[in-house]
Amino acid sequence: MRAMIQSEEFVIATRESRLALWQAEHVQSLLQARGLAVGLLGMTTRGDQILDRTLSKVGGKGLFVKELETALEEGRAHLAVHSLKDVPMELPEGFCLAAVLEREDPRDALVCPRYDSLASLPQGACVGTSSLRRVTQLLNARPDLRIEPLRGNLDTRLRKLDEGQYDAIVLAAAGLKRLGLAPRIRQYFSEDEMIPCAGQGALGLEIRTDHQALRPHLDALAHGATWLAVAAERAVSRELGGSCSMPLAAHARWTDADTLTLDAALGHPTDPARPLLRVRQIRVAADLAAAESLGRETAHALQALGAADYLHTP
Ligand SMILES: NCc1[nH]cc(CCC(=O)O)c1CC(=O)O
Description:
It holds the Pfam family Porphobil_deamC. The protein has three domains: 10-101 and 202-222, Periplasmic binding protein-like II (D-Maltodextrin-Binding Protein, domain 2, 3-Layer(aba) Sandwich), CATH 3.40.190; 108-188, Periplasmic binding protein-like II (D-Maltodextrin-Binding Protein, domain 2); 233-311, Double Stranded RNA Binding Domain, CATH 3.30.160.40. Helices cover 32% and strands 23% of the residues. It is built from eleven helices and 13 strands. A five-stranded mixed β-sheet has the order 2-1-3-10-4, sandwiched between helices. Helix 9 packs parallel to helix 10. The chain is globular. The termini are far apart. Residues 83, 85-86, 171-172, 174-175, 200-201 line the site of ligand PBG.
C-alpha cells in the first residue's frame, strides 16, 4: 500500500488504523468513480503512538493530523482524509479544509456485553472513555459511575472491553458502523442525552491551499448541509479558544430546511461532577456566515452562563 505507482495522479495520506483506512479508501473510491487514478499513503502519527496518556495531556488532537500535513507539504501526498472531530479548529498556514462529506450517524454509542443500557448498569459500574466530553456527560447522568481511561484504536478499545477491563465503553457510532461493528452497540445516546463533539461523524478533506488541482473534484464530493452544520459547531469551539482539554460538546442539526438547532454543553475539566453548562440556539442559517455566527453566539451564551469559570482552572 505504501508503494506509489507511477500512473497514480493523486495520493491520499491517511493514518493506518482500520477506521482511518476505511475512510481513506472511501474517498479513494469516490474519486476513482470520477475517473481519477488515486493511491494511498499510510502513516503512523504521534497520536497513534502515544497510548498511555490522554490526548489533552500530550498536545491535543493536532497529533493525529500533523504527520499527514507534512506529507502534503513535501508533495508525497495531495489530500489528507481526517475524521473531522480530530482536526483542530485552526489549520496551520498554507492548509485548508477543501470539503466535508455527508455526515454519518453523529451519535455516541454504548457498548456493554452484559447490560442493555446506561440505566441498567449497576451502581459504581466501570465505564471506559478518555474523552472529557463523554466523562462529564456520563457523570452528570450517573454520578455513581467509575470512569477509567481508554485509548487506542477501535479494535483495541473493544478488545479491552472484551477482556473484562470495563463494564461498558462509549464510542462514536460512526466509526462502529463504518467497520461493520454496529451489532455491538447496545444503546445509541440521543443527541440530547449525550451531545456529540464538533464534527463527529463527518470526514474532512484537507489540501494545501496552493494545490488547486483536486479542487473541482472535491467540490463535487462536498456536502453543503453538513458543511454548514459543522461550521457552526466548530465556531463554538473556536470562539471559546477550543482545545481538546476542554469538555465541550457542540452539535448542530437541521430542524427545518433552512434552520439549524445547535446544542452545546461545557463540562468542568477537573471536577466533572460540576453541572454542565448547556445551551440551545436555533437560527435560520442559509449560508456559512450565518452558521458561523450561530456558533459564536452559542459560545457567548455559554460565557453568559459562566464558561470562564470552567475554562480557566489551574
Ligand atoms: N477520537 C478518535 C475518533 N475519531 C473519530 C472517531 C469516530 C468517527 C467519527 O466520529 O467521525 C473516533 C473514535 C471514537 O470517538 O469513538
